[in-house]
Design goal:
Keywords: Membrane, Transmembrane, Transmembrane helix. By secondary structure, the chain is an all-alpha fold. Helices cover 87% and strands 0% of the residues. Helix 1 packs antiparallel against helix 2.
Length: 63
């Protein structure tokens, strides 16, 4: 897994934790953490798919 995807995945996990804590304290700022979760998960999936496609393209060129 690419390094940037791992970083984005770490942001996802931290965003979930921050949203839970925020909502548990009665703050509506948890909505911002949920939005950050959505963006970071999309970034993680993008880099995973990009690495997979790059690997497939490199294998295709080699044969």
């Amino acid at each position: 897994m690419p390094r940037l995807a791992l970083y984005a995945l770490a942001v996802c996990v931290l965003s979930v934790a921050a949203a839970v804590v925020s909502f548990a304290r009665g703050s509506w700022l948890g909505i911002i953490w949920i939005l950050l979760l959505g963006v970071s998960s999309n970034i993680a999936w993008y880099y995973v798919r990009k690495a997979k496609n790059d690997k497939a393209a490199a294998a295709g060129e080699g044969s």
